[in-house]
Amino acid sequence: MFHNIIQVIPTNEYKVYIYFDDGKIVCYDVTPLLNKKVFEPLNDKTFFMEACTILNDTLAWDITGNRDVSKCIDIDPEMLYELDHIKEEIA
User: Which structural domain range is residue 73 located in?
Assistant: First the structure.
């Protein structure tokens, strides 16, 4: 069963809180990806924070700012859903 992501909230520590439509919340740590070429734009913390969004029904970063789903960096939503459920730590 596919669960929709309804909200993403990036943090200054290169983590993103991801909220699913069934109430599950996960925290995805992006730091292991920062040294990979495709994720290079995320090293700019301002870009990481401001471009973080939902595109292609998953966590993504809008490269062009035009919400073009073919020009984004996105993360597999099934992998995200498999992360451990957490208690929300931000408020």
Answer: 5-82
